């Protein structure tokens, strides 16, 4: 994959990078922070959504590319992604920010979310840094749209590009207000990029042309791109006095290079990173100890980087075989939820011993009068539901069966009680089911290190992911 980039303006948001004329057409070193100079940063609704949830600066903000970075398309079991999910929900969700930054349009991004067990990010940057949305409901950042409108005329961009017979228009879904995308053969890409840049310059348009994957050619406003979008977000947080304590950017290919150019971020190039990103690094960021090339693939490389830079806990609960003799660094209600559903998966996959001791210990973690409202609406006794697990030991052994939780957020509602909300997902064979879950749990002793007691669990089907057979849905 090669990335070509036309550079047309003189200011730079990214740290000074050694000027190498050969590089100009190769890497997305963005150079037009016109938005930063001309547009005061306003608090947008989206940032409010994020800040209201966090209350304090994010402890860690992870900004990750998706294809071949967070998502490993060669990992059919999605294990590294599921390991990351467990780590994030147990240790980071409550006080940190997850940002996905993808080349995909909203349409293809949503398709990927249906295919892979992905978490819900706090912020989604799509279409190569041209669309920013916040929260689960994906509230768009209109301020960013205004920034990108400057010196951008989509019609001229498209019309001029259509005169190049080497360019084949990508699918309609991938044509976005600030992104016009084509396919072009590798050997023609550099010449086309150069010629196009000249044409646009004559029109007074400041565009950025990025060639990716040996086939994709994206034309964006000069101020767009993954790095510029991140710089824009960081500036917003700074204005609000809420800059993340640490930021980790994660990528695998040339159009992620911009992310690694943002000052003060840590960066991980996953082990499977493309040659052009490694080359960009060798030529521009070598001695930068804040950037590593992981020895692990995709999400496992991200976990590795969290450990390497000491950004916080880096032991995914999914990797812990037996919690009974594991001392948690930082017990919290989120961790309790992750732990419970991992046990549930391993029990049904027969990956823990078929021992009554386990169920007894689970029951000991339930209030004797605790209740469970099944998504069918039937109310049951929580300890009875744990008993009900006995007959399901190993029923998913050797089968495709995975369980994960998403968006686990706890609100303290009493001195020792939390209301925990999350989505619980189950992949069984080809089918995926999910529930919106609310749990009330309380700490066993004067502080959380004594563990938690489950008091009430209430589930309702997630629209579009209802289970057909209520009887096989335990929790
Ligand atoms: C994604 C997008 C495509 C784009 C490519 C490279 O595959 O769907 O439109 O050209 O990323 O950025
Ligand atoms: Mg990628």
Automatic annotation (TrEMBL):
Cofactor(s) for this protein? Mg(2+)
One biological process GO term for this chain? Answer: sucrose biosynthetic process
Q: List the catalytic activities from the record.
A: sucrose 6(F)-phosphate + H2O = sucrose + phosphate
* Domain called Sucrose phosphatase-like: residue spans: 59-310
SUPFAM superfamilies with a match to the protein in the record: HAD-like, NTF2-like
Pathway(s) the chain acts in:
Glycan biosynthesis; sucrose biosynthesis; sucrose from D-fructose 6-phosphate and UDP-alpha-D-glucose: step 2/2
Keyword line: Hydrolase, Magnesium
Gene Ontology molecular functions: magnesium ion binding; sucrose-phosphate phosphatase activity
UniProt keyword Hydrolase, yes or no: yes
Q: Broadest EC class?
A: hydrolase
Q: What is its EC number?
A: 3.1.3.24
Residues in domain Sucrose-phosphatase C-terminal? 333-462
Functional summary from the UniProt entry:
Catalyzes the final step of sucrose synthesis.
Family named by the database record = Belongs to the sucrose phosphatase family.
Assembly and oligomerization? Homodimer.
The name this protein goes by in its record: Sucrose-phosphatase
**Phylogenetic placement of the source organism:** Eukaryota, Viridiplantae, Streptophyta, Embryophyta, Tracheophyta
């Amino acid at each position: 994959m090669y990335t070509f980039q036309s550079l047309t303006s003189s200011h730079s948001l990214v740290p000074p990078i050694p000027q190498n004329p050969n590089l100009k057409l190769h890497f997305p070193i963005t150079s037009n922070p016109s938005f930063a100079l001309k547009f005061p940063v306003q608090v947008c609704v989206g940032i409010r959504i994020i800040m209201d949830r966090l209350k304090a600066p994010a402890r860690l903000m992870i900004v990750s590319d998706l294809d071949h970075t967070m998502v490993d398309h060669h990992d059919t079991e999605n294990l590294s992604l599921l390991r990351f999910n467990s780590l994030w929900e147990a240790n980071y969700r409550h006080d940190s920010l997850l940002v996905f930054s993808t080349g995909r349009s909203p349409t293809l991004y949503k398709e990927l979310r249906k295919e892979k067990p992905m978490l819900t990010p706090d912020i989604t940057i799509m279409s190569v840094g041209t669309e920013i949305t916040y929260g689960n409901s994906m509230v768009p950042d209109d301020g960013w749209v205004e920034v990108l409108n400057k010196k951008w005329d989509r019609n001229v961009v498209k019309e001029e590009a259509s005169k190049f017979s080497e360019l084949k228009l990508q699918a309609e879904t991938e044509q976005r207000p600030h992104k016009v995308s084509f396919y072009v053969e590798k050997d023609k890409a550099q010449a086309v990029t150069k010629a196009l840049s000249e044409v646009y310059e004559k029109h007074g348009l400041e565009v950025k042309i990025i060639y990716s994957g040996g086939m994709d050619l994206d034309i964006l406003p000069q101020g767009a791109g993954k790095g510029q979008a991140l710089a824009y977000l960081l500036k917003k947080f700074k204005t609000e006095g809420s800059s993340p304590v640490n930021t980790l950017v994660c990528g695998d290919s040339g159009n992620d290079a911009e992310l690694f150019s943002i000052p003060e971020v840590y960066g991980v190039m996953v082990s499977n990173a493309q040659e052009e990103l490694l080359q960009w690094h060798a030529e521009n960021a070598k001695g930068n100890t804040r950037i590593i090339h992981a020895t692990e693939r995709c999400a496992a490389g991200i976990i590795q980087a969290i450990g390497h830079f000491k950004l916080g806990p880096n032991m995914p609960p999914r990797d812990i075989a037996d919690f009974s003799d594991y001392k948690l660094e930082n017990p919290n209600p989120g961790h309790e939820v992750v732990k419970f559903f991992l046990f549930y998966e391993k029990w049904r996959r027969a990956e823990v011993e078929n021992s009554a001791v386990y169920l007894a210990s689970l029951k000991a973690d339930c209030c004797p009068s605790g209740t469970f409202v099944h998504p069918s609406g039937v109310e049951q006794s929580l300890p009875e539901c744990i008993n009900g697990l006995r007959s399901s030991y190993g029923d998913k052994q050797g089968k495709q069966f995975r369980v994960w939780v998403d968006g686990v957020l706890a609100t303290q509602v009493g001195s020792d009680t939390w209301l925990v909300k999350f989505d619980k997902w189950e992949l069984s064979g080809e089918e995926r089911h999910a529930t919106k879950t609310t749990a009330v749990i309380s700490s066993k002793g004067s502080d959380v290190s004594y563990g938690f007691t489950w008091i009430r669990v209430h589930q309702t089907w997630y629209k579009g992911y209802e289970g057909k057979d209520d009887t096989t849905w335990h929790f």
